[in-house]
Amino acid sequence: MADLFFFLEVLIGGLLSGVLYSLVALGFVLIYKASGVFNFAQGAMVLLAGLTFVRLTQILGSEHPWDGMFVLALAITFAVMIALAFAVERVVLRPLVNQAQIIMFMATIGLTFFLEGAAQGVWGSQVHRLNLGVSELPIIIGDVLLPPLDLVAAAAAAAMVAGLAVFFSRTRIGRALRAVADDHQAALSVGIPLQSIWVVVWSVAGIVALFAGLVWGAKLGVQFSLTLVALKALPVLILGGFTSIPGAIIGGLIIGASEKLAEVFIGPLVGGAIENWFPYMLALVFLLFRPQGLFGEKIIKRV
Amino acid sequence: MLYREAGQFKTSYPADQAIFPIPQDRWSLAIVLVAAFAVVPMVANNYWLVSILIPFLVFSLAALGLNILTGYAGQVSLGTGGFMAVGAFAAYNLAVRLPQLNYIVDFALAGLIAAAVGVLFGLPSLRIKGFYLAVATLAAQFFIEWLFTRVPWFTNYSSSGVITAPKMQMFGFDLSDPVSRYLITLCIVTVLTLAAKNMVRSAVGRSWMAIRDMDIAAEIIGIRPLHTKLLAFAVSSFYCGVAGALWVFFYIGAVEPQAFDINRSFQVLFMVIIGGLGSVLGSFLGAGFIVFLPIALNNAAALFGGALQADTLSHLELIIFGGLIIFFLIVEPLGLARLWQIGKEKLRLWPFPH
Amino acid sequence: MTQPPRKIGGTLLKVDGISLAFGGVKALSDISFEIREHEILAIIGPNGAGKSSMLNVINGFYHPQQGAITYKGATRSQMRPHEAAAQGIARTFQNIALFRGMSTLDNIMTGRLLKMKTNFFMQALYWGPALKEEIAHREVVERIIDFLEIQSIRKTPVGRLPYGLQKRVELGRALAAEPELLLLDEPMAGMNVEEKEDMCRFILDVNDEFGTTIALIEHDMGVVMDISDRVVVLDYGRKIADGRPDQVRANQDVIDAYLGVGH
To answer: What are the domain boundaries of chain C?
Structure first.
């Protein structure tokens, strides 16, 4: 029985951290769907959002989580992420419109370095603690220990995904966005303003990054290693497919759970720390059998 | 008026297919080579040789390797650091375990081992493309890094996980002084560059570019996709592997696996982008740019009173790198090499702009 | 119809009962016809009739669910495109499929790749046999360049060329392989009259001088009637006629298909 509980604990821990991978992957999917840009800078955006927020709470003198200054800092960070979306559209995307995807991808690698340098240059590179006011005492169900922060994060992530789903399926801008995702030229020709769509998606991705930054920051401390979380989102995308929101969620859960299980149960046999590469290998093996991802459509070759 | 093609006619296909069909280009290359082989060793001090020129050459070789894979064959790789690590650790283990081998043989074998690993991780490229392949190469990067960190055999059971290159000797001569290290590196890089230039201008290079530009059409004219891609992975990893070996033996002397982490992969990728995808010259220009930029920044900072801390400076470097990447992609996606070529074309037509 | 009589030989390629579907969509159903040695065969039909799919089946790019193809006496149900190329089938594409980053010369040189025998290491040395081979093939390619009258754009990257010239370079690349069977997918689409005339002349010359068998898809009926020996008509993935141009022109099914009667 103890073994089973231990297994469950590892599994649930993995699933909960998977939720966070899903969140970062979600940011990727949003941008990829709307602009065909594979945004490597999503991780840097998480760092920028987390760092900006935590430094603002210090500067503004927030004393408790969710006091006035805390909320003000949140609002300012929010504004910063939206400003970033405008800047990226103006400076990076607009001049590169119609370039090959791979060029766009490399441009976002450039953006990543720029944001990492700028975020740390302005706010410093120390590690900051971030307290969201969630109790640290684990909740115990049966023999399974559950960290409340993870549960809160999971609940909030679920709410966020539901909100996005409504946004994209029910609102005018959501429809326009799906049109843009299908075909840039055609969308332009029926009068959809491409540029404002891009600003909207990058803003939403920025907000998703802020959210991920808060939760990861509360868990690991706000620091440079947050950007590495973005690299973990890549195998998630491979599993889920680059264009599928449910894929991002389920892919995140699979990666989160399997890497924890592998680390705990296989890791000791081969020297440990296999978390670092296990997700990539899993994704690689998966790719060989299903190149289009779990939810992607099968591609028909054409000439 | 110095750089002119007018009046030079090629009367045979061999003349037209020479590496540098224009005599002025041949002359400038000769001058660069003479300077690199003869003048530099006489005038450069140890700091220049060890901290600037050797890393520049090693990076150029790695960039050339990645450029073959990404620039010519169109397969994006984020695993360059991993392949360099394979070369470095293979050369180290060969040198330690088979001390009777000549170092040149060590390096060649290290390159071949890296090539084999490259082929292994290149296998998925038949089914997956673009970003998907980039992620697959990340698997190589992280797995290799982990392997060399976790399996003590590879570091010869060194307690710190650091490998230290044995003293360089060849044919009974001591070659550990900076000038010899520089010259051996230069020789190896020159030979491999010439080979790369030959590959990209002959049939194998054309099949790589065909796969890059339109893989479906390439297959229909009879190019075997898997074979061609794997050859690109093999050659690329060979170059990166040799670069990794040179890194340990001639540049740093002692490294841990983390010297070849994901950031190294990105660094080399930047060199290729800034220098020019699909250009041998671009690999050198890009490597030069990224090696010299931090030094130039440092000196510039010193000019302004040296008020900047190392921390700030490294952030500034990131900002400038990132900004430049975006700038280059917007202004000239084909990189420095393309700018150089445009300059030459202008010069050929000068003083008539049309 | 003033071409000199050419020797049209026996069957070079035979398509037998080919059916092809994508998911539930039937692209081709039960198509049979043959291509004879040294002839020019035109495949025509309204948009969406399955003409390009037919060519894709012949050179191994699509694998049909049913039917067989007999080429030079060997029957097969499927093969990879590079195998088809190795057996002497070359083609051009409806939407030009050139290697945009490479020069005209290099593009046509890729057509010679299957004929190049030196190995990779010799090429890395670029010396001895590799150099000799490179020059020998360069000479062949230069003859093709002369033939197609594209000397002046030899070193221009094809991405910068106008449409008509790109089509010509693509033909050059296919010719460089010295194919026995040349498949041309709308070689004259989007060309003006003068360019069409040039292209017709090249096609007839290729057929005449090298004896290359040609199967082409074309929409311009005038061109089809002028240059082809036989015509196969497809409509909605079915074959509705097969015969000499004048026979096909008189066929009631063909007239209906083109005028939209009877559906």
So the answer is: 1-88+179-263, 100-177
Quote the pLDDT of residue A126. 84
**Which chain A residue lies closest to C62 (C-alpha atoms)?**
A301
pLDDT digits (tens, 9 = 90+) for B47-79: 888 889 999 999 999 999 999 999 999 998 999
Establish how many alpha carbons lie within 13 A of residue C76's alpha carbon, considering only the half-sphere containing its beta carbon: 17
**Which contacts of A147-156 are long-range, i.e. CB under 8 A and separated by 24 or more positions?**
A147/A13, A147/A16, A149/A215, A149/A218, A149/A219, A150/A13, A150/A16, A150/A17, A150/A19, A150/A219, A151/A16, A153/A16, A153/A19, A153/A20, A153/A215, A153/A219, A154/A16, A154/A19, A156/A211, A156/A215
Domains in chain A: boundaries = 2-289
Task: Decide if C142 and B13 are in contact by the 8 Å CB cutoff.
Answer: yes
The separation between CA C42 and the C-alpha centre of its own chain, rounded to angstroms, equals 10
CA distance B23 to chain A (A): 35
Mean pLDDT of B309-337: 82
- N residues, chain C: 263
Whole-model pTM above 0.90? no
In 3D space, the residue among C70, C68, C55 whose CA is nearest the CA of residue C217 turns out to be C55
Asked if the Cβ–Cβ distance from B17 to C134 is below 8 Å, we say yes
Cα(A303)–Cα(C96) distance, rounded to whole angstroms?
9
| Pairwise CB contact (< 8 Å): C97 & A303 | yes
* CA distance linking residue C255 with residue C153, whole number of Å: 42
Q: A 283-302 residues with CB below 8 A of C?
A: 300-301
Give the CATH number of domain A2-289. Answer: 1.10.3470
Band the pLDDT of B2: cuts 50, 70, 90.
low
Continuous H helices in chain C: 51-58, 81-86, 104-110, 120-125, 129-147, 163-176, 193-205, 221-227, 245-250, 252-259
Q: Which is more confidently placed, B167 or C222?
A: C222
Give the separation between CA A151 and CA A218, rounded to whole angstroms.
Answer: 13
In this prediction, residue A265 carries a pLDDT of: 86
Q: Give the tens place of pLDDT for each residue, A183-193.
A: 777 777 888 78
Of residues C161 and A186, which shows the higher confidence score? C161
pLDDT digits (tens, 9 = 90+) for C175-186: 999 999 999 999
pLDDT score, position A299: 54
The pLDDT of residue B5 is above 70: no
Which is the CATH superfamily of the domain at C1-88+179-263?
A: P-loop containing nucleotide triphosphate hydrolases (3.40.50.300)
Quote the minimal CA–CA distance from C56 to chain B in Å.
10
Rg (alpha carbons) of chain A, rounded to whole number: 20
List CB contacts of B175: < 8 A, sequence separation 6 or more: B168, B169, B181, B184
Answer whether A271 touches B (CB < 8 Å). yes
Distance CA C55, CA C184 (A): 9
Q: At residue C2, does pLDDT exceed 50? A: no
pLDDT confidence tier of residue A70, bands split at 50, 70 and 90: confident
CA atoms of B86 and B110, how far apart (whole Å): 8
Give the integer Cα–Cα distance in Å for A156 and B96. Answer: 55
CB contact under 8 A, B217 and C98: yes
Report residue B23 as tokens: 């005599």
Confidence at residue C1, expressed as pLDDT on a 0 to 100 scale: 40
* Contacts A303 to C, Cβ<8 Å: 52, 56, 61, 93-95, 97
